């Protein structure tokens, strides 16, 4: 457990848990022991950040101009902003403990005082209102350092009636703009409401104007956003000033910030919430932000403090910082550690809200000093085990918090779609159960690559890697943008030969983006990668922000054998769309071709574990495991291809072949491997020719093992009905060859098989 870090502010003595003191709520005093202790050693630059330029430069279809100007904002097209389907908290995939609803009467503070050790100037942060020589400190006055007025006394008391309607019950908390009160609405069934101060001013006209400007919040109505009921004015006789209040729905529950604090107090400063739970909260937050953005509003101050879970619902609270997206003059509120770097100059935007969500996810899911050392970046994956274990989650955070707002997710809906994909991957990794979902961005696999050995079971190496051309022809491609003017024409060409597609598209009167992409693919299909590369370069100059150019560029590079270019392209698409399976599958296949077996295994496993419809991932993972010497694991992966899959039989055939041998795998099969392959083959419903050919492979492997002594000591089992002895296996092979001879299509094949039967039979005296 990490050492406790104490706040060094005068009279405080709280604990610094995640960059802020849990008592005074402020960051440690710069230069203090607390500040030094909270700051870990400087890390190496992020691999993703450092490699971006190099990866882009290695893709020749990108000119120097497009490399300098483009980011990852190509996903701002129609295909990646489709709204994800939503239901309950965690999109029905995560079981999150309910937070009991808190009775409002129990939430009222008995003694609404701000402790002296929590009194700080809101302008400069200096200690104010502190007692001396046994005398209590002033609750109102002026900061001796900057002269700003301070007041820590409630402006409303129990029994006060605001605007003739809201009867004050007491104080709930003290916030940045003063006290927050619980009240009863006399006009609406005595419902509980919350009053929060907006402005304290003696200028009635200024107050009225400020309140009128905020009334648009009363139109906000969403299940994940706190309801705004009213805006009222109240003249405070105690301060002789007019105060504006926002009247809000009472949400009784617990903030995500308080959840995190409780866990860290119990388990240590680096403790975090479970990742699936964090992602579930993020999805609900993005749902709320997407609604606000649709109204032309930006939230500005998204953070764990402003998300409350009550029972099984999460709500975004505190709309005090919300403003219109086109407001260039209003005040901007934000929080250090969450706010995007460009806000101070360019103002808030949808992109800056996306940044706050990414930072909030990071704060909730792992411990790091996000207010100083990592205020403008994320830790490297090597520093945080969670990020190393969850590469897709890390890439999602990197994109959401990219220093360049143009490289972030273009909308809350887009980020939500990718975050949901990451959630499915995380959950599948925890319990091994797939969490499939149809992609709204990519097609399914166009065909399965790596199944050739199952079709030709004799003399074929089950561990042999498919060619780049075969892989490129099978990988998913981006779905058709139906809003493209050429979508109708392209739909009529479905099922046409590649040559016919090329001819039709070259004759088309208009060269739209979708048409040009399809033309690139058609030239690949007819075996002309050079023309495809040229067409892609032209498209990249015209559409520098479209990630689809890089995905097709990866396919071209794979076909052409340029593995470095293919890797760079698919890696960039993965960074752009971390919740999608297609770029991971493409990266896995590229890594396998390049001989990077650990990376290939990791990417294949991510895809297959999450979604069993990508059978190429199962075949690829089995090949890689076999090459790494783990025959049993390879067979288990192939055995996990479900019976409902069209590739189930092919997978079982490959499992049999994998169990008995490969040119890439040593040592030779064990008796258990041989018996397992025999049982699997016996359970298959194959035609006579194919079944006997596969049986020959199993029996030959068994004979080789017997001859080398590998089966010595094996007891209690037969291999396809034959004793595990040399004579027994030779007799079985003879029978299989003679059966195949009777099934042969030509005289030549029949003679050859009879010769093999005679050659393999045991030697006898007759």
Structure in words:
- The chain is α+β, with helices and mostly antiparallel strands and about 775 residues long.
- Strands 3-4-5-6-8-7 form a six-stranded antiparallel beta sheet.
- Strand 11 and strand 12 form a beta hairpin.
- It is elongated and about 115 Å long.
- Residues about 35-55 and about 70-85 have low confidence and may be disordered.
Task: Write the SSE topology.
Layout: H1 33-38, H2 47-57, H3 64-69, H4 104-107, E1 140-142, E2 149-151, E3 161-162, E4 166-175, E5 178-185, E6 191-201, H5 204-214, E7 228-236, E8 241-249, E9 254-255, H6 256-267, H7 275-294, E10 297-298, E11 307-310, E12 313-316, E13 323-324, H8 343-346, H9 350-365, H10 385-389, H11 391-400, H12 412-431, H13 452-455, H14 468-474, H15 487-492, H16 498-506, H17 513-525, H18 529-542, H19 547-560, H20 563-576, H21 581-594, H22 597-610, H23 615-627, H24 631-639, H25 648-660, H26 671-682, H27 688-708, E14 718-719, E15 722-723, H28 726-743, H29 747-760
Antiparallel strand pairs: 1-2, 3-4, 4-5, 5-6, 6-8, 7-8, 9-11, 10-13, 11-12, 14-15
Descriptive terms for the model:
766 residues; alpha+beta; six-stranded antiparallel sheet; three-stranded antiparallel sheet; elongated
